[in-house]
Specification:
Radius of gyration: 20 Å
CATH superfamily of the largest domain: P-loop containing nucleotide triphosphate hydrolases
Order of helices and strands: EHEHEHEHHEHHEHEHEEHEEEEH
Strand content: 15-25%
CATH topology of the largest domain: Rossmann fold
Number of strands: 13
CATH class of the largest domain: Alpha Beta
Strand order of the largest sheet: 3-2-4-1-5-6-7
Number of helices: 11
Distance between the termini: 34 Å
Helix content: 25-40%
CATH architecture of the largest domain: 3-Layer(aba) Sandwich
Length: about 300
């Protein structure tokens, strides 16, 4: 069983616990376990989240990017072995954590095989950035932004459009505008945090566009032999216009071994898939992008290019 991991980063007071509170209270049908790292002897965040769900594990009195690395990996291993196992794990870092080190640990092959890092989101309080623009010079703040697949501007309902645009411009020095989202009260569309489940295709391959504000989804399948080098070229074209891609493929270069591909923003991974393809298929892909920016016909044309002659 694969349990995807969501990593939530950001400075102190950026709104991480508010986001997790909403996610745990509205899991969109998922059973989500939360791992919380408060830097202090009393883990307030875990206590707050514990009022929403019992699936909260606290890593106390340390920072998981340094002194608690071993504890984090042991905790993930124990969570995965629970019966029933969660459908996803959300990790809330402390405000002083550098996500780059945490990501490096989560990419451990043993952990990644069963708990792949799905999404990294960094929260930014635009009001604080407006009041103290020097934050943008802080090395840790910059590292938190660079590590993110998506940046969430929290408490956006408290500021006017002009101020939000100014903040977006500052954050835009580090991330493309397509990766910046404005949220309020911790409410985030599930499609941004977790990719959709793989479709079980039983019919001849066709792309199936499905839209839901503000995202559009395209499902693509194939029965033809696939080329890995061509796939990598096409993904390079699709990545800038999609928010995430996930799927299982079989390439002629790796006969008999289904490959799991995951892409979030511009970060992509290829790994052996523990899940087989549906019978008769060589590809099952789900692509998610902003509504109006993901054209099913264009996606189909590009992906047909990976089919070997």
């Amino acid at each position: 069983m694969i349990v995807p991991v969501l990593l939530v980063a950001g400075a102190l007071g950026a709104g991480k616990t508010t986001l997790l509170n909403h996610l745990l209270a509205h899991p969109d049908g998922r059973r989500i376990a939360a791992v919380v790292n408060d830097f202090g002897a009393v883990d307030i965040d875990a206590q707050l989240l514990g009022t929403v769900t019992e699936e909260v594990i606290s890593l106390k009195n340390g920072c998981i990017c340094c002194s608690l690395q071993g504890d984090l990996l042991r905790t993930l291993s124990s969570v995965i072995k629970r019966d029933p196992a969660p459908d996803a794990i959300a990790i809330e870092t402390s405000g002083i954590s550098d996500p780059a080190e945490i990501i490096r640990n989560l990419m451990d092959p043993v952990i990644f095989k069963v708990a792949p890092l799905e999404t990294v989101v960094t929260l930014v309080d635009p009001q604080r950035l407006r009041d103290d623009p020097e934050i943008a010079q802080d090395a840790l703040w910059r590292s938190q932004l660079r590590a993110a697949d998506f940046v969430l501007l929290t408490k956006s309902d408290l500021l006017d459009r002009a101020t939000l645009d100014q903040v977006r411009a500052v954050v835009g020095r580090f991330k493309p505008q397509s990766a910046i989202f404005e949220i309020a009260n911790g409410i985030v569309a599930p499609d941004l945090l977790f990719s959709r489940d793989m479709p079980v295709a039983r019919t001849p391959p066709r792309q199936i566009p499905v839209t839901s504000e503000p995202f559009a989804t395209v499902t693509w399948t194939s029965q033809a032999p696939l080329s890995l080098p061509r796939f990598q070229q096409v993904i390079g074209q699709l990545a800038p216009r999609t928010l995430r891609i996930k799927g299982i493929l079989s390439f002629t270069e790796h006969p008999g071994q289904p490959i799991l591909f995951q892409s979030v923003a511009t970060r992509g991974t290829l790994a052996p898939s523990p899940v087989p393809l549906a019978e008769g298929l060589t590809a099952q892909l789900v692509l998610i992008g902003r509504e109006g920016e993901l054209d099913a016909a264009e996606v189909d044309k590009l992906l047909r290019g990976i089919e070997a002659a």
